Amino acid sequence: MPIMLSEPGVVELGEVVRVLREWQYDGAPVQLHPGDLGWQWRFGAEAAAVALRTWSRDGRILALGTLDSEVLRLAVDPEAEHDEELAGQLAADVNQPERGVLPAGSVSVEARSGALLKRMLFDVGWTDGEPWTPLRRALTEPVPDCGLRIEVTGPAEAPVRCAVQRASFDNSTFTEERWRTMAAGPAYADARCLVAYDERDAAVAAATVWSAGPGRPGLLEPLGVHRDHRGRGHGRAITLAAAAAVREMGSSSATVCTPSANVGGVAAYRSAGFEQLPDVPDLHREG
């Protein structure tokens, strides 16, 4: 059976999230997680669907990707990682703008489990792009107390959660409306938003954590410290709180991936007991 490239509709998004959950397991590369789709959901179900592409054979999804600006974030079924036909189809589809996956010009593919795909794209002129640092913490043992008061965000607390997000990331457009949209999506059924408060009761850091189901890796995405409260160990504290939260939700490990240039972020994760894994560059085509 040929491999079919498709653009899922809104009604198919729940199935895509379910499939992506099944692809998560300890020891796998830190690739696209249901939480990544859940976080993108803040812009609405239609926007999430428009950004999605799936590759299927005989009705079974073998790979899926979501377009984030000029970057395609890709995940592959672990059982199809060495499927040469799939890798060849992916390479052709991402390299030819008329296929409707990536636009013309400078683009990148995040494919952390695609050795065959990488080789094929390098053969047609792609190169290594921005490096990313994945980190992982096993959750077999309890996580130490973070030392801050942690509140789980509900609708009443959403304005504070969103305000901390905007104060943590200069270009953030996170709003209470977008929080409600995200929280209504299927991926958020296995997620929590956390806000950390210091001894003066100021909201100093925040995170959203995503489970992929019991016994599977959880994801921290996003996690940030309020710009007015940095340099006081709050990054380590909210990371510990986030890891503890996904452990309570049944996750076997906590994962995160950050740009390798984010030296402070990598240090905060490591100080919270995360193991730094080898850097993985995106695949890049110059326009």
Q: Termini distance?
A: 34 Å
Mean pLDDT: 96
Q: What count of structural domains? A: 2
Number of helices: 9
Largest sheet: 13 strands, mixed
What is the string of SSEs from the N terminus onward?
EHHHEEEHEHEEHHEEEHEHEE
How many extended strands? 13
What's the name of the CATH homologous superfamily of the largest domain?
A: Gcn5-related N-acetyltransferase (GNAT)
CATH level-3 fold name of the largest domain: Aminopeptidase
CATH class value of the largest domain: Alpha Beta
Please compute the radius of gyration using only Cα atoms. 19 Å
The geometry reads as globular
* Residue share in β-strands: 25-35%
What is the CATH architecture annotation of the largest domain?
3-Layer(aba) Sandwich
Structural class: alpha+beta
Helix content: 25-40%
Give the low-confidence spans: none
Protein name: GNAT family N-acetyltransferase
GO molecular function: acyltransferase activity
Keywords: Acyltransferase, Transferase
Domain N-acetyltransferase: 148-287
What would you say this structure looks like, in words?
By secondary structure, the protein is of the alpha+beta class. It has two domains: 3-130, Aminopeptidase (3-Layer(aba) Sandwich), CATH 3.40.630; 137-280, Aminopeptidase. It is built from nine helices and 13 strands. The chain has helices spanning 13-22, 34-40, 45-51, 84-95, 115-123, 158-168, 176-183, 234-248, 263-271; strands at residues 3-6, 52-57, 60-68, 71-76, 107-110, 127-138, 149-152, 191-197, 203-210, 217-225, 253-259, 275-276, 280-285. Strands 1, 2, 3, 4, 5, 6, 7, 8, 9, 10, 11, 12 and 13 form a 13-stranded mixed sheet that branches. α4 packs across α5 (115-123). The longest helix is centred in the last third of the chain and has 15 residues, at 234-248.
